[in-house]
C-alpha cells in the first residue's frame, strides 16, 4: 500500500513531518497517534491546498512530460494512469507555461485557462488583476473579457423576481442541456465544484438547523 507522509522541506531540502503520525494512502487517511486541535487543523489545511492546486499539479506534470519525453511516452503514461484530459489537453499544456511566481493565490487554474486565451502578457496581467480584485468566477472572467468590462452572471431571467425556486428551476433546465459526455470531463467537474461551493456551504448551514 503506497503511503504519502505529510511533510515539508527544510532549507537543506530534507523532509520534515508536518503532522507526525498521519499517513495518506490510496484508500484513505490513517491516524497512528492522537492529534492536537492545531495538528488536525493543519491536516485539513494541507488537504485544501492540494485540492485547490490539483489542476495546476496536473498541468505542470503534463508540461514536464511534454517537454522531456517523446509524445508516445507521454500518451502512454496519460492512458495508463487514466488521466482524462479529453479536449482540454492543449489548455493544460498552456497552463503549464504560466510561471509559478505569476500565479495569483486568489485565482484558480480555471481562471488562467481563460487568461491564456489572451494574445499578450499585458492583457493577461491586466485581467488577472481585475479578476482577483473583483473576485470574479472563471465564467465571469470569460464574460468580462468578451465584453471588455466587469460582467457577472447572466442577465437573462425568465421572471422579474429572483427566488430560490426559480434558481432550482433554472438549474434543472441547465442540467437537461448538458452536452453528452460531461460526466467524464474532470477539468469541467472542478470548475462546477468551484461554482457550487457557496451553495454547498448554504445547504450545510440549513441542514445543521434541521
Explain the overall architecture:
The protein is mostly helical. It has 8 helices and 5 strands, in the order E-E-E-E-E-H-H-H-H-H-H-H-H. The strands form 2 sheets. A 3-stranded antiparallel beta sheet has the order 1-4-5, with no helix packed on it. Strands 2-3 form a two-stranded antiparallel ribbon. Strand 4 and strand 5 form a beta hairpin. Helix 1 (37-68) crosses helix 3 and helix 4 (109-115) runs parallel beside helix 6 (138-147). Residues 1-6 and 155-161 have low confidence and may be disordered.
Number of strands: 5
Report low-confidence residues grouped into runs of 5 or more.
1-6, 155-161
Q: Sketch the major β-sheet.
A: 3 strands, antiparallel
Q: In what range is the share of β-strand residues? A: 5-15%
The neighbouring-strand order within the major sheet is 1-4-5
How many helices?
8
Distance between the termini: 40 Å
Radius of gyration: 21 Å
Give the H and E element order: EEEEEHHHHHHHH
Global morphology: globular
Average residue-wise pLDDT? 79
Strand-pairing-aware structural class: mainly alpha
Helix content range: 55-70%
Secondary structure layout plus pairing:
Blueprint lengths: L2 E3 L1 E3 L5 E3 L4 E4 L2 E4 L5 H32 L2 H10 L8 H7 L13 H7 L5 H14 L3 H10 L16 H13 L9 H24 L1
Antiparallel strand pairs: 1-4, 2-3, 4-5
Helix pairs in contact: 1-3, 4-6
What's the gist of this structure?
It is built from eight helices and five strands, in the order E-E-E-E-E-H-H-H-H-H-H-H-H. The N terminus is likely disordered. It is globular and about 55 Å long.
